[in-house]
Amino acid sequence: MTDAYFTKNNIDDEIIDNEQFEDMRDLLEEDFSDLIQTYIIDSQQRIDTLRMALADNDNANGFEAAHALKGASANLGATQLVRLGDQLQEACREHQISQQADIIEQTATALQRVKQEITLRLEP
What we know:
CATH class: Mainly Alpha
Largest sheet: none
């Protein structure tokens, strides 16, 4: 996916890009629910890692966690998390994780929204 794919309107209007989500569901079929569970657990761990990196002023681990979160979120079409992960990556690249407490908490909130949206989409 290109950066143009994640336009501001697309990010603001959608929690999850429907086409990307459905493409992944079609591709994985019965393994999709396992992917979702793994994604949610891993994403929460990455947010915990970001919080620890903030406390320790550890830009390297912050960058790795943000990069992993961004990539996994892109696979599912979680556009807000992709945008926030990208912002955190850039901040860590510039050695500014110590100034990212608000963005990290926005990321945690966005993950909660993604979880809620996925739950709604997977209900029978």
